[in-house]
Design goal:
The protein is an alpha+beta fold and about 270 residues long. Helices cover about 35% and strands about 20% of the residues. The protein has helices at about 1-10, 45-55, 105-110, 115-125, 130-135, 150-155, 165-175, 185-195, 250-265; strands at about 15-20, 30, 65, 70-75, 80, 100, 210-220, 220-230, 235-245.
């Protein structure tokens, strides 16, 4: 894939990781795919997977309602911290502290609007340790989920979530193949990801006939997008894009959108 590699070489002061698996042909593409990075909000997919696992075994129902609250415990020292609205991309839950919402809707807000507040409430419910354990049980290597969002004391001590483009691709491949929890659970998780409201990267330059189930993540100069891409009349392919070093959001989005377009055209 010379065109892809030559495009990426043009960003020699950035780190760009690409991992692709085509379920139609088995073709794979890996460029810097094992580089470990802060996964930002892409780690919300493992949270969703553990919620569906617990629903499957009867530990909870997706229709159960949880209280909306904004007080969480740092893994660094057990102290309490609250999320700040300015750091979140979903604001409606902050106006509803003390009310309740269904687990199903909290999962949706966590994925399609990347709600940090919904994420932390759900991680309290299912436990971060269980999220991380499920990742390991699925055989996904080079991915760890050890803390919730905006735990700044933990971050200052380098206690951080981690993933790579390849591990994220492997995770989405398992979902695309119906191998996480159950085929029905995977279908429901894909349907949720189809509702993604931030579409500046992987889907941006693809034809309107192509459906994309994906999850974005951004934090400081980390910008990622990982997804299952469904071109018409063929099996889907998995694309995982991790980037580090873009100071301007739009530059990162434009870069990832162009990479996604190149890969789409090469696979057709």
């Amino acid at each position: 894939m010379g065109s892809l590699e030559s495009f990426i070489i043009g960003f020699d002061d950035k780190t760009i990781s690409v991992a692709v698996h085509d379920l139609q042909t088995g073709k794979e593409i890996f460029i810097n795919a094992d580089v470990m990075m802060h996964p930002a909000s892409t780690m919300k997919i493992p949270v969703m997977m553990e919620v569906f696992r617990q629903a499957e075994v009867g530990l909870l129902s997706l229709d159960d309602r949880l209280e909306i609250y904004n007080s969480f415990v740092s893994i660094a020292d057990g102290s309490k911290f609250a999320l700040e609205e300015i750091d979140d991309s979903e604001l409606t839950l902050y106006q509803r502290i003390g009310e309740t919402e269904s687990i199903r809707e909290l999962v949706r807000l966590m994925i399609v609007r990347s709600s940090n507040l919904a994420s932390n409430i759900l991680m309290d419910k299912v436990s971060t340790a269980r999220v991380n354990a499920f990742v390991k049980e699925l055989g996904i290597e080079n991915m760890s989920v050890i803390r919730g969002l905006e735990d700044k004391k933990a971050l200052s001590l380098n206690m951080n979530n981690a993933a790579s483009a390849q591990s994220s691709m492997q995770m989405l491949r398992l979902i695309a193949e119906g191998k996480v929890v159950s085929g029905q659970a995977c279908k429901e998780m894909i349907d949720i990801m189809f509702g993604q409201e931030f579409n500046e990267s992987i889907p941006a330059l693809l034809p309107n006939t192509v459906k994309v189930a994906h999850k974005t993540g951004w934090s400081d100069d980390f910008h990622h997008d990982i997804g299952i891409i469904f071109p018409p009349e063929r099996k889907p392919y998995i694309l995982s894009l991790f980037t580090h070093g873009f100071p301007v959001d739009k530059e990162a989005h434009d870069c990832m959108a162009e990479i996604s377009k190149i890969i789409y055209e090469e696979l057709q």
